[in-house]
Design brief:
Blueprint: H1 4-17, H2 22-37, H3 48-56, E1 67-70, E2 75-79, H4 85-103, E3 105-113, H5 119-127, E4 132-137, E5 158-162, E6 170-174, H6 181-189, E7 199-200, H7 210-215, E8 217-218, H8 224-239, E9 262-269, H9 278-290, H10 306-315, H11 324-333
Parallel strand pairs: 2-3
Antiparallel strand pairs: 1-2, 3-9, 4-5, 4-9, 5-6, 7-8
Length: 342
Amino acid sequence: MANAKKLINLINRIFVSRGLSPKHAMISAKALINAELVGAHSHGLSRLKMYCDRIDKKVINPKPKIKIKNISKSISKIDADNSIGFVAADIAIKKAIDNAKKTGIGLVGVKKSGHYGLSGYYAEQATNKNLVTMIFTNAPPAVAPHGALKSLFGTNPICFGTPTGSKIPFILDTSISMINRGKIRVAARNNKKIPEGVALDKNGKPTTDARKALQGVQLPIAGFRGSGLAWMVDILSGVLTGGNHAGKVKDPFDDFTGPQNIGHLFFTFKPNLFVNDYNKRIKNNIKTIKALPKIKGIKEIMYPGQNKFKRLKINSRKKINIPSNIKKDITKLVSKNTILKY
């Protein structure tokens, strides 16, 4: 068990020891621990070694010269210079927020980035500024296009966020696959099975073996519809931005032949562009849906983001549990000049 604040400082030192600036290291450390606090362990400490390995093998640039070009007062594009994804995404969402605050709409495309963790983490920054947001990013091949035998699309998450007029924003952050790929990796590492109906092995047979699933194909949500959504995200975040696409995003855990060149797209806008009473309307929308008759066993109809907020509130008061295998990784990653204290 470990204190979140101490863990953030420890991870910060690990990243600084690998060449990241203190500012970039802190951005990355906070994002990783946020994933732990909201219960998304597949995007938290389990990925720390991967990021460090990619820095050590020089496929993540610890000293990026990130370039921002303003196409208009609303639209900007960012060349992240193969930085760690957390930093590229942090700069991009802040730029999208700034543009939207000035003009009503902010659109930012990013290329030459890497895996940035949870999309919802950045969406929350926008909703905290009373903005609506949509965020897209592509990922390494995991899902086969509908009708194809080979995986090509990533699990390509789709994220939407809006202020609700209350302290809990509406944030939908979901991959287009039946299960998050990070969860399969965690299951493989801990010798646990995955649910039925989420993946096929390399021979196209259903499997609950996590290792076989990683070598095979993940299944999309809703059949061809999920495949279509994955394709949409690949276009928006890859084709549109100048990032890799069509299966060319490299796997961060296994492929060290070069940078990932992931693309991201951040879209933010003011909620009062068309109506002056958005807060009243969104409150009424949520209230109406929550008042619907509930099926047996359901106490409350929840909107996306509510459960995450509850987990964050509860987990922020507790110490973070670190599995033994991840603790070993952290111990190995600590430099000789760093004192390992939880």
